[in-house]
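Question: Hello, beginner here. Any chance you could explain the protein record under this note? Any guidance would be welcome.
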Amino acid sequence: MDKFWIAFSAIEQVDSPFVQRLYNYFGDIEKAFNATQSELSKIEGLSVKKAENFLKQRDKIDPDKVLAEVINRGIKFYTFENPSYPLMLKEISNPPVVLYYKGNIESCNLERAVAVVGSRKASYNAKESVEKILSGLEGTDICIVSGLASGIDTTAHRCALKHGLKTIGVIASGFDYTYPAANKDLYREIEEGGGAVVTEYYPTFEPLKFRFPERNRIVSGIAYGTLVAEASLKSGALITANLTLEQGRELMCIPGLITNPNTEGIYKLLKNGATLVTCASDILEALNWEIKPAEQLKMDLSGLSVDEQKVVETLEIEEKGFDEISSQTGINTNDLLIILTTLELKGIIKQTTGDRYKKV
């Protein structure tokens, strides 16, 4: 049945509500795709013009061919019927009929997803605030969702990668396009281990202007809450904030300089009841989440050698330099270099600045 979902999504002139209406009426995606004009005319409230337009475009689509095009590009996907389709996204009023993705969305904990949005022309202060807040989530299984645009989106994704958090980038085009082009490396970093890049659009669909606000409903819809870093009164971030409220999700805002026009939307949202966020714990409290300790994050500390255990215990409280670790553990320089490298590869410790190390 996948090919009929893909075939629907390959028709630029039809949208998700149209497909959902047909699917709900027929109860079968193949029957919906192959419906006759007579059958479509019996669907209450369905515009005759929309039905005729669909039939005209459908006759140009070969379901087997469009499915093959997706597979040949190495693109994975969830159709609306797939049991792995994100549950939170399924609950919104207008869920995408297909969610295409690259990367490993399965590695992302979608039960701990929070969206981060804001201005494309973000101030240094806003970017710094996002960095401060997201760094406080390091060591958790929280997934950061954003729109892979410039400004706050890019900052959120890069902060997530920097602090070992999974991240999902939702784009407003098919995978034949990279927008903005400056984020080409960021796309790759996310796809190669940092999480996943996702879209509802068939690979050949361009990043047209109207698709960006459409994309926003997925950014907020896949998450339990949205954190807004900067937003003017007329901005995509404010659209996402309103979608968050419509979807019944938690809306959170980072305060900024009152002299910055990009904070006018922020203070409007705060006055209307959005949660004020200045640190990571504010997000956890707003969403009623508890940080999962390392053992719950499947950090396997069993099977370590005696010397490896000594190093981990030394870093239990605070980060330390190489000489401190060597002195406290009594391990010689050559052996310690090997142990530190091994523990880093296992994800148990990480190097910070210079020759200093800390436990993850």
